[in-house]
Specification:
alpha/beta; 18 helices; elongated
């Protein structure tokens, strides 16, 4: 399976200018491609990630991404998918947002050592004179064609300023500039960008008298069937951000862990891209759906915040809510398979057990009370009789079971009661 076929199989392709030519280029050439992000805020959210995932896949296949952050277009605001105009941002705010987005995108795309281009379109638009742009570029665009774009047509009743109307010209010029400077021949983006993207391919052909071919492909928008919202909103309607100061790594993990069941397979294919395609399908279709969600959440968090953050979030969530597959029965090549409830000990609430008390009859029911899990030994016995108590993953069945210092061979034990109550017992 070549990279084009994998993108298609994972559901990344919605519209294309020339599917056969795009596939041929991606399988026979080193393609320079680009995707743009407007810095209308200081953080991307998970709804922005689909094209980022596609860029990562293409880069790993040997192609060269050009990451464009729109310092100029961000000051105007894309009218696509909006019923009202965006709030105007100062150039200082836009510049700050550009730097924030660069650091976030660098987690997914390797920007060093010439493996990618990172550009800001303010660098060229800031130098262009208005009359030159209107004469050289504006003359190449058809107003009738621009009015037919969905992003424009949907706004005509409520009003559309000339500022926003000009957005398509600017995005089209971006593609032309990148084609001229970097030999960029492919643009990718969300399906709501189709009109703007095609404007770029047409401008390139017109500027070179039909002698140069450039293409674009769009990625389908993800909709949450449970809420009817664009993917990226939590249950409360708040966006889930990549900025760790706005959405913690734990909350980021939990967003994926709690995804809608109906979206699981689609999310596995699109966001667990470090795992083989067949493995993603197998994980999504096997019966332990909660384990599939753990793997998805772990992989998504690892990409956004690093492997340590993903491990910590997985172990913390498992300690609090229980592990879906403590014996690792669901096959995966993900490094999540190397983790177990024992690894969660460092993230658990601690209870210190004085060594002197172990000389007495320290029973498991007493430990449950001492750790704060149970209020009384009678409650503790009922939990044990119900098979809900374990020490280091070994189920306790004897209500009179006792422990000694010999049980603390590694200095600590993990006590569990039910699916959500864990304690780290430390001998001192």
């Amino acid at each position: 399976m070549n990279i084009y076929q994998e993108l298609k199989a994972r559901g990344f392709i919605y519209q294309e200018t020339d599917s056969a030519l795009i596939e041929k280029k991606l399988t026979t050439e080193k393609v320079v491609f680009y995707c743009g992000f407007d810095p209308t805020g200081d953080s991307l959210h998970v709804g922005h990630l689909l094209p980022v995932m596609a860029m990562r896949m293409l880069q790993k296949a040997g192609h060269v991404p050009t990451v464009l952050v729109g310092g100029a277009t961000g000051a105007i605001g894309d009218p696509s998918g909006r019923s009202t105009a965006r709030n105007m941002l100062t150039l200082e705010t836009v510049a700050h947002n550009v730097e924030c987005l660069k650091s976030q995108l660098a987690r997914f795309i390797t920007l060093e050592n010439g493996e990618a281009n990172f550009v800001n379109n303010y660098d060229w638009f800031g130098q262009i004179k208005l009359l030159d742009f209107l004469r050289d570029i504006g003359s190449r665009f058809s107003v009738n064609r621009m009015l037919a774009q969905k992003s424009v047509e949907s706004r005509l009743e409520n009003g559309l300023s000339f500022l926003e109307f000009s957005y398509s010209l600017l995005q089209g010029y971006d593609f032309y500039h990148l084609n001229k400077v970097y030999n960029c021949t492919l643009e990718i983006g969300g399906q709501d960008q189709w009109g703007n993207m095609v404007a770029g391919t047409e401008l390139i052909r017109r500027m070179y008298d039909e002698e140069r071919q450039a293409d674009c492909l769009t990625i389908p928008l993800l909709m949450n069937p449970a809420t009817g919202q664009k993917f990226g909103k939590s249950v409360g309607g708040t966006s889930v951000w990549l900025d760790i100061n706005r959405t913690s790594a734990f909350d980021y993990y939990q967003f994926w862990r709690n995804c809608d069941d109906a979206m699981l397979k689609e999310l596995m294919l699109k966001f667990a891209i470090e795992l083989p395609l067949d493995e993603c399908i197998a994980i999504a279709e096997q019966p332990n759906i909660n384990r599939a969600k753990e793997i998805l959440a772990y992989e998504a968090t690892k990409l956004a915040h690093g492997e340590k953050a993903a491990k910590d979030a997985f172990l913390a969530a498992g300690s609090k809510f229980g592990f879906a597959d403590p014996e690792n029965k669901v096959f995966t090549t993900s490094t999540i398979a190397q983790l177990s409830a024992k690894d969660a000990a460092d993230t658990l609430p601690e209870t210190v057990i004085p060594a002197s008390e172990l000389a007495e009859n320290m029973t498991i029911p007493r430990l449950l009370v001492l750790s704060g899990i149970c209020k009384s030994t009678s409650d503790a016995r009922r939990l044990i009789q119900g098979g809900a108590v374990s020490l280091d993953d070994v189920k306790i069945t004897d209500v009179n079971a006792a422990i000694t210092a010999g049980n603390f061979a590694n200095g600590s034990l993990t006590l569990r009661a039910g699916k959500k109550n864990f304690r780290k017992l430390v001998l001192k």
